[in-house]
Amino acid sequence: MTRLYRRSILTARTHVDNRGAIIASTDFDITKFARDTYAYAWPRDGALVANALDRAGHEDVTRQFFTFCQQSLVEEGFFLHKYTPYGQPGSSWLPWVDKRGERTLPIQEDETGLVLWSLWQHYRIHRNLDFVVGLYTTLVVPAADWMVGYFDERNDLVKASWDLWEERWGVHAFTVGSVWGGLEAARNFADLFGDNSAYTRYRDAAEKLREAADTHLYSSDLGRFPRRITIDEDGTQTIDMVLDSAITGLWRFGMYTPDDPRIVATMNAIADQLSNKGACGGIARYSNDYYFKVDPDTKKVPGNPWFMCTLWLAQWYIATAKTTHDLKPARDIINWVVAHQMPAGLLSEQLDPNTGAPLSVSPLTWSHAEFIVTVDDFCRKAERLRRSSLETLPPKPRA
User: Fold this and answer.
1) Which residues span the domain enclosing 299?
2) How far apart are CA 243 and CA 308, in angstroms?
3) 241 and 101 within one domain
4) Verdict on whether the full-model pTM lies above 0.85
């Protein structure tokens, strides 16, 4: 575990361009499948990788990333799909025009929210006020104000955008959780700098979004959260009932507590229904995942196992653990990741569900970042539980 943890930090660090862009992957073989590479900077991927590097103590590198984001932010206050290492818009398949021929934003709103969330985590870890003060008016405020304005007045949820998998348009659970995390980060920054009007604006927006998620996003019929909802022009709401591991975003960024009964039901469903029954094990992205599909038997293999999706489940086990014994499922997943690394200590995007062979790009920086975060969470929680158990032990009798 220690060796892969250190190699993951090195891998993530070597994917940071000198200008601050965090590259998703430098694997060129993917061009045979997708006719393009992953050698771009996705703000979402970068935000999560930056958080992992911050936890590992690489403050200088992550500062460059946030400066890169400041310079790449569109004037209106949002991030585009992805960027080149030079900060120019990267090639994208997200359309600027919808099916009706009307202009739409080719964005994934979670990317904007997560950059702010990650920046606040950066400040919490390093407490460098001189750095973040320069980003408040140029990054935090414009991005947060744009998110506040990107609400659907019909239900107080966020407006539709593309999901993190870049496949579907709608209001996604992961996006809602990411935007809430970004608004909460902006509120914290506004409080830090004494910006009372902004504090109230971001607090109210976050509260409104949480209430809307309670009302419109949770499905009592399913007994869990769905992955997305779509809203027609007449206001009709359609629930996408497919189970998706990315629903994790509702608790991962603080919107819901990990032990909320609705989250517990959702995560248990992910652990059960998205578990790969093939020899490799692991957790799929979502039910009947088509990307690099290997096995047509969806009852046995709901989709190829992804490192990040499997590690999200481990993070939830850690977050809800009450005793050291409760950490065993998370430790088992960490060991599973170690067992399925490539000989050079690299983690791919996904694995063959039967043989465990790496599929898609390798390494994927995001996979390594989630491993870093999971190990960090595990070690901190294990130490906290160990100390707590020592405090509850009865005092030794005097001799």
Assistant:
1) 1-39+274-382
2) 16
3) yes
4) yes
